[in-house]
Amino acid sequence: MQGRELIGIGAAVMAALALTPAAVAQTAEAKAIVDQAKAAGIVGEQADGFLGFVTGAADPAVRQAVEEINAGRAQVYREAAARTGTTPAAAGASAFTQVVQARIKPGEFYKPAGGGWIRK
């Protein structure tokens, strides 16, 4: 995939995330739980565009919040893929690139494709 295509897909995904919060299907409570878990180093962003567990230890509320947000992201990636003529996997990967560059805070974790968890 060319860099320009990846940027276009990423822009479509980020626009969908920004403009259609209902499509993301995340509650304010789930977002707050995940934000706390990210700050604590329990949850991080993965190369596929989904949240993952940095450590295996997460309480049920964190696991449920991650599942809720990931389900919403999956829907957004399907919609972005349909609009851009790509795959949901490519849309998720593109979203990851955008998130790592713009939204991950110092101290939070991300996991690039084929790599381990990295603290920003």
Query: Structural class, please?
Result: alpha+beta
> What is the N-to-C succession of helices and strands?
HHHEEHHEE
Walk across the major sheet and give the strand order: 2-1-3-4
- Hey, roughly how much beta strand do the residues contain? 5-15%
Number of strands: 4
Low-pLDDT parts are: 18-23
Mean pLDDT: 85
Number of helices: 5
**Alpha-carbon distance between the two ends:** 26 Å
Whole-angstrom Rg: 14 Å
Share in helix: 55-70%
CA-based shape: globular
Number of domains: 1
User: Sheet with the most strands?
Assistant: 4 strands, mixed
Task: Considering the chains and any ligands shown, give keywords for the structure.
four-stranded mixed sheet, 10% strand, 5 helices, alpha+beta, 120 residues, 4 strands
Describe this structure in words.
It contains five helices and four strands. With 120 residues, the chain is of the alpha+beta class. A four-stranded mixed β-sheet has the order 2-1-3-4. A hairpin with a 4-residue loop joins β1 and β2. α1 crosses α5 and α4 crosses α5. Residues 18-23 have low confidence and may be disordered.
